[in-house]
Amino acid sequence: MKKTIALQGRGHIGKSTTLRRLYTDFLLKNGYKLIKYEDHGDVDFLAILEKDGELIGITSAGDNYDLLQKRVTILVEAGCTIIVCACRTREGSVYAIEEFVEFQHEFVQKTIASSEEGYENANEKDAKTLFKEVEKALEDSKLAA
Question: What is the reported pTM?
Fold first, then answer.
């Protein structure tokens, strides 16, 4: 089963930071093999990883329709069956994700923090949640095979 997992929230609340944390602190440290990595500026990146024969793609660029649609297309064309991305709460970036009709879509709400310490805790919590969702998607894919 193909699946997108979108970390959803308004701008400047840590979606890209959380996705980078998912990548560095959870996926790379838990047996996911890096296939491709592209740095796209200050915080945005695109990565493709492999585990158990499945390709998992991550893109942190999710601020607008055009950019997110382009990056998700790259991941789909690379053969990713699980895609984790950032998106805003409505309109453009949500539409970009929903256009990939062969994928099941899950939207995870970004935790909003009010302090620097809370910000770090929120990012850690959300990265753990996303990791669990990726692991569940991998397991579901094995069961469907």
Answer: 0.96
